[in-house]
Amino acid sequence: MTGTRDWSGPLAREAMAYVLAGGRGSRLMELTDRRAKPAVFFGGKTRIIDFALSNALNSGIRRIGVATQYKAHSLIRHLQRGWSFFRPERNESFDILPASQRGGDERWYAGTADAVYQNIDIIESYGPRYLVILAGDHIYKMDYEPMLRDHVERRADVTVGVIEVPRQAARSFGVMQVDADDRIVEFLEKPKDPPGLPGRPEVALASMGIYVFEVSFLFDQLRRDAADPQSGHDFGGDIIPYIVRNGKAIAHRFERSCVRSAEERVAYWRDVGTVDAYWEANIDLTAVVPQLDLYDRSWPIWTHAEITPPAKFVHDEAGRRGEAISSLVSGNCIVSGASVRRSLLFTGVHARSYSRIEESVILPDVTIGRHARLKKVVVDRGVTIPEGLVVGEDPELDATRFRRTEKGVCLITQAMIDRLAG
């Protein structure tokens, strides 16, 4: 059991954030063929990982480590370009920690807990009192300071960030049962039949992949776990269930520390782990009053700020009018006699004359040819859409050419386009 201490200032000053960003995210299909899930583009100019990192920075945490593994080059390049402003002379640090077979037995990170265990020496060198473990692949705004205070006040061994989700959707999360004081009494990792809440059987309490530990206690647990040949060396599968059985694990509800502007009415958190969920979360931003406010200057989402010219709209004649309605259009986009509706255009998209784009997410540096019609698509980075291509009007044809989801979203990559020409 960890003890308490006297404190008056922000606990974030004594904490280090450790972001687990090594996952592929295979349910995003071809979007993660060339990049890890945390490096996938989101919201017009950011990457998914920017949300966890921005939350840490805005919470006052100035020591951050990011553990990478799967196809990490795109992610590492983004981190180097966008997150290199931390200064050691201000007691700040930002470490990128690729799986580098540091354990002596030439193995990669065996699990999420092992990804921390292999870097104990680096964490110790900074001397943090608390470690905030974060998943690098969720979209949300959260102040971690209340969770840190909750951890200390409750004298917890681990505090787990939790959120209510529909019970059937909880099968891809860690699910827990709690008592009246939010002490975790059972923790199940990705159960096939998740337990519902008392009196609310269709809702489950799911882990957000956010954990707070006192460092000395965590290191003891990691060393114990590393010595267990039967362990999967995973937080959700091994570390947390062990503490639930043998210590004190507390659930911290997201609503207590969710950051919301005056325009945000719900506690917004999304796992954009499927193509459908990714499309929906991006398209959500085109609403008049979106559930997630990216314009909240009191809680900015930091990222690599590219130097680009403004977006440009040209031509104004019937059938050839450069326009965008209920859409987000990023820098260096040229909408040249094209119509864009309820869509999101990332940096450097060029839409040629007479093309129509509707309910679509277009990643950076895409060129859309004349007379093309795209509806309900996600177009990967750098794709050239041929002149006259129509997607989103014939479901059976779309399914033979592109990756079409159950909800009718088509994912388009350059390889798929190239096969059309072949």
Describe the secondary-structure layout.
Blueprint: E1 15-20, E2 41-42, E3 46-47, H1 49-59, E4 63-68, H2 73-82, E5 93-98, H3 112-117, H4 120-126, E6 130-135, E7 138-140, H5 145-153, E8 158-166, E9 174-178, E10 184-189, E11 203-214, H6 215-226, H7 235-246, E12 249-253, E13 269-271, H8 275-284, E14 312-314, E15 316-317, E16 320-321, E17 323-325, E18 328-329, E19 334-336, E20 339-341, E21 344-345, E22 350-351, E23 356-358, E24 361-362, E25 367-368, E26 373-375, E27 377-379, E28 384-385, E29 390-391, H9 395-401, E30 403-404, E31 410-412, H10 414-421
Parallel strand pairs: 1-4, 1-6, 4-5, 8-12, 14-19, 17-20, 18-21, 19-22, 20-23, 21-24, 22-25, 23-26, 24-27, 25-28, 26-29, 27-31
Antiparallel strand pairs: 2-3, 6-11, 7-13, 8-11, 9-10, 9-11, 15-16, 30-31
Spans of at least 5 consecutive residues whose pLDDT stays below 50 are 1-7
Question: Which percent band covers the strand fraction?
Answer: 25-35%
Question: Overall 3D geometry?
Answer: globular
Largest sheet: 9 strands, mixed
Please give the count of helices: 10
What level of helicity do the residues show? 10-25%
The overall pLDDT, averaged over residues, is 93
How many extended strands?
Answer: 31
* Rg, alpha carbons: 23 Å
For the record, give the distance between the C-alpha atoms at the N and C termini, rounded to a whole number. 64 Å
Quickly give the structural class. alpha/beta
